[in-house]
Amino acid sequence: MPPTALLKIDVEGYEQFVLRGATETLARTACVYFESSAENFAQHGYTLGEIVEMLAPLGFEVRRLDGAGPTTAVTSADGSSELEDLVAVRDIDYLHRRLNGSG
Asked: Is the pTM of this model over 0.90?
């Protein structure tokens, strides 16, 4: 299978379960885009920190997004209650190149 540049997940709080079932897909994926909602995650019994911890051994760093692109890294201790857009990346420079149209 060819590599995947971006995997978008929009499952209203079921992200952890989708990620658990996507190990083969994640192995060939550069970036994963998903929404974070503490309320939605709590309804399914997990936290954002658990997603960060699940993705780290796979080589991903989770980062917040704003209008300019990826910003601060999210740690397993983060517990934002806001609805926010996040991206898990293997190579932040690759993502910046893609966002700037040069990669």
From this structure: no
